[in-house]
Each structure stands twice: as C-alpha cells, then as structure tokens.
Amino acid sequence: MTESNKTNRRLTPFITLITAGIFLLGVSLIPLLANAQQKALDSTAPIFPPITLDYPAPQLTLTDLQGKPVSIEDYRGQVILVNNWATWCPPCKTEMPELQAFYTAHAAEGFVVVAIESGEPADQVASFVQEYGMSFPVWLDPHGTALEIFQNWNLPSSYVIDRDGKVRLSWTGAINQPTLEQYITPLFEEIK
To answer: 118 pLDDT exceeds 70?
Structure first.
C-alpha cells in the first residue's frame, strides 16, 4: 500500500465525522430559522417599515367566497389593507391572526382588510377562513390577477389604500400588529 493510500485511509473516518457534524449542525439550525419569523411577529416592536408609495389604486374586481363580484371601489372612503396570500403559505398563516386583531381593533374607524387568496378553490379557502377566524372580506383570485396588477408575485404582500383611493404603503412578507399600528393608524386621521 502506498503512503498516499495509508494517509487517505486514516483521514476517511475523520472526514466522515466532520461531514456528519456539519450536517447535524445544519439540521439543528433549521428549527431556529423557521421560528425566527414567528418570534419577530410575536414581538411587540414593529418588524420593518413599509415602502412609501403614492399612486391611484388599481381597478380590481374579483369574486368573494359566495361567488359575488367585488371591487376595490366598493370600499372607497375607507382605509384598505389589500393582502395577497395563499392557504399553503407559512408566513401568510403566521400573519393572519395579526391582521385579524388589527382589523377587529380598527374596523369601526373605517378600516378594512381585503384578503385576496391566490389560486386555491373556494371550499379550501372557506375552511382556512373558518379555522383562522377571519371576519374581514376574503376574495378569490384563481388566476393571480391581483399579483399581476400590483406587480409582486411574493406572498404575503400587502398594500394600504387611503380614503382617497391612493396606494400609500406596501410590504412584502409577514407583518405584525405593532407594525400595522405604527404605519396604518395615522392614515385613519386623514380626512377625505
């Protein structure tokens, strides 16, 4: 046996041990990374600021869970949070209780969440709505029309439309209630 082969035989268990250690370290980090977003949402501090915008709200008409046509225009004069989401999307699931809590706290101030589900059948969406106790309007978007109109195919994504019908804020990714309070609540005071 050559000297090189002897060295390789002695190093093989060592390399295998190091490789296994790196693999185990990587596997152990997965739960930590998966819980990072949940911890951020559970925080009492805002997550991150929105992008500030100023353009007319797009014309968007879809159907609700009962199959009736609905439009952004139906909510003119209110502050609207349009939330593009999907039933299979983990960050969407994480933020739904936050959106519901904010909606419950501010619906009387002329605020509405319009949750636009991207692509799932009505019965599946209805089950999700019931499971998460969503009391705000839920629209069906089987063809991704809202994602195309807002030019953002990431889920979740949210847009805030003011009482005058202008898109003022946007987020990509899950948001928490303190973030919503900090950035949307001031829009309630603006007079149309």
So the answer is: yes
